[in-house]
């Protein structure tokens, strides 16, 4: 099955929003074993939308639409497709009831245009919308399948994942779907990881091996087509074992979680606590850890020591270390070590991580942009400090420094430190 | 001029990356007064790429490509377009020299395939690449203009903003371009802001008024077409004055900066310092402030008091306030006030902001998800606390709480507190 994704909305063409829906759907379709050959974006204009449908019908046998199912006259996707395939439109009673109930419970007057959201193309299967009002449509006409999904991601995603995927699987029949394992790595760059796996990547046929890199993390997706999970596991096993053998010291998870989630999981299992002392990352590391629900159990808190004053007063870094000719300065291995040790002692945690460096845009203390020290203090253990020379812009340097600190902690927690 | 954006790359079709380039280019083209009617994504496949070119030529007079200018055999955009328009390809000597120099300085062996990045379609204008190797191409054939830009955003953006835009302006001649002012608001939601401006939005013709909302911030873009900045200023003035009059207490900037940048700017002007005490935002607020270059001058540091222990020890919150039956607890106005006051006193800063609340996913201290208190302590001033009931997911609640805290500080700094 060859698919084309058609996102409908003038706000996309004006650059007001990013087309994240296309990515989400592309990934989801790939997982179902459906190839996406084109993505198209077209505005809220019936003529141009119908032209886009015509072009897509000529080069795909599945058209997945997102956007244009709302209540306003700008929302044209359903009408345009119905006209294109020569079918009428009828009211989907359960959706209409839901809309009326919503208005009743809110106590507002029913606005007639909301009726549009309950409309279904003749013969189409309704797709449930658990997070909004507009009902989705799925239909096949003349051998071409159409999936109509809402535009707002919070409605589109669950509808695609639930009723949309189920309908697509029915169309595909018992054919093989894509099964994959996402292997996540830290402490290693994309090119170095590729070097370690280069022969596997070159010779890959089935399973396939696809490296990814984003937001300071590196991943490899290992995929195969199989009719069920057991068959998939058998086909994937050999490749997974070989990759594990070569990358043991960097492989922190075999599901798509960030390193902060892996670290919080291990701290929780080991019932150990963490504190953070941040200078150049300025709270970003703490922000990453606390994105993880349940982090409050293991993360006690931290100090952002952006000024030397706070480094001295709150973390016990001595003035001699920070100031005066010949002193190592705030951006130094010595300061990173004392920050971590001071933080750990002050809050009596099992671990403390520290980060100090220059994230740019200009030199500080005559130290180059990208020079960062990360420290790890451990109760009853030896304090470790790593020196990094990172490239990229301010945000990139901060993010990579934070991820590197989490990797140091992961090494200790997994007994590889 | 009607444009189509064609992003080339199989990684987009697999959903491995989001097509942020399309948004960036759409916005940039709109600012030049160029309408974008379609965005297309096609894989690294010459045949399908040439088909896409053919379709785009039939419905646009400017085709802007991104991706496919790199060194590998997968990078096909230049070759496909040259073949389509029947032109040869030649070496762009200055780019070739730059590539050779880069290899010489790195000390690595020159890889022949890199020569591809210095190739230019016959008669094309080269577009300088300050952040990478591949040279851009700009040319007009049979009344249709083509702009070829690299795929990596850090190369594409500066090339489009510099040589790309300049070349497009030449093609457009002295015609009117879009001039706009971005007005940024805090402390107000999108729908409330729309209510304040609804008659202006309904009756808008020239200038146009477009509301935006993203990442906890609300904006309005006021735009008009004009041949120069003076004419634009005259045409925009009346609308800007009226919007300012209605929104004074929320309007924090008339350029596209986040509230944290406005706050750092005002603190710097007023030579005042800030510290932060965060609970549920967990360092995110501090992370936002320190994204701003130069924030180190006014931001002394902060404490992430994720545990009650840290609240007591580092911020001087009393056990009676936090624990025991009938105590207000960590999520309370009282605790928010003491956190801010304790932080300010400990670091002797002019201001301290505090945030404590429940960002979810489940209730804490029997307090509902989304209940957040933000506090502001000021040297010699009265401590203020605001109670918020925020909706959304964990990240959304944290972000909106952080932005609200910054708004409180902005109010004080601008004399509206």
Automatic annotation (TrEMBL), chains A, B:
Gene3D superfamilies: 3.30.70.2860, CinA-like, MoaB/Mog-like domain. Residues 4-171 form the MoaB/Mog domain. It holds the Pfam family MoCF_biosynth. InterPro entries: CinA, CinA-like_C, CinA_C, CinA_KH, Competence-induced_CinA, MoaB/Mog-like_dom_sf, MoaB/Mog_dom. Belongs to the CinA family. This is Putative competence-damage inducible protein.
């Amino acid at each position: 099955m060859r698919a084309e994704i058609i996102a409908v909305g003038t706000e996309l063409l004006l650059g007001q929003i990013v087309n994240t829906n296309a990515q989400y759907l592309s990934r989801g379709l790939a997982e179902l074993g459906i190839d996406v050959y084109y993505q198209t974006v077209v505005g809220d204009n019936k003529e141009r939308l119908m032209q886009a449908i015509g072009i897509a019908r000529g080069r795909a046998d599945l058209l997945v639409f997102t956007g244009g199912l709302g209540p306003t006259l700008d929302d044209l996707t359903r009408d345009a497709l119905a006209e294109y395939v020569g079918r009428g439109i009828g009211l989907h009673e359960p959706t209409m009831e839901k809309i009326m109930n919503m208005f009743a419970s809110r106590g507002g007057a029913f606005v007639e245009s909301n009726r549009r959201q309950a409309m279904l193309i003749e013969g189409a299967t309704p797709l449930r919308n658990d997070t909004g009002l507009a009902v989705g449509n799925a239909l096949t006409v003349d051998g071409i399948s159409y999936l109509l999904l809402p535009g707002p991601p919070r409605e589109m995603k669950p509808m695609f994942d639930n009723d949309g995927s189920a309908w697509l699987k029915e169309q595909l029949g018992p054919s093989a779907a894509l099964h994959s394992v996402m292997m996540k790595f830290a402490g290693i760059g994309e090119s170095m990881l590729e070097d370690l796996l280069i022969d596997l990547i070159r010779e890959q046929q089935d399973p396939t091996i696809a490296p990814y890199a984003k937001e300071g993390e590196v991943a490899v997706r290992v995929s195969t087509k199989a009719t069920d999970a057991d068959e998939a596991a058998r086909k994937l096993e050999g490749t997974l074992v070989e990759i594990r053998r070569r990358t043991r010291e960097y492989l922190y998870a075999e599901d798509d979680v960030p390193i902060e989630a892996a670290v919080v999981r291990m701290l929780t299992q080991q019932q150990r606590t963490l504190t953070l002392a941040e200078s150049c990352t300025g709270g970003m590391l703490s922000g990453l850890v606390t994105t993880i629900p349940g982090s409050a159990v293991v993360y006690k808190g931290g100090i952002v020591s952006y000024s030397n004053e706070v480094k001295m007063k709150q973390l016990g870094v001595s003035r001699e270390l920070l100031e005066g000719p010949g002193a190592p300065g705030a951006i130094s291995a010595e300061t990173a070590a004392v920050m971590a040790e001071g933080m750990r002692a002050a809050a009596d945690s099992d671990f403390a991580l520290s980060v100090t460096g220059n994230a740019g845009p200009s030199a500080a203390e005559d130290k180059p942009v990208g020079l960062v020290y990360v420290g790890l203090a451990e109760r009853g253990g030896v304090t470790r400090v790593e020196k990094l020379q990172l490239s990229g812009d301010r945000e990139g340097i901060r993010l990579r420094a934070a991820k590197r600190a989490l990797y140091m902690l992961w090494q200790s927690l997994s007994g590889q430190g």
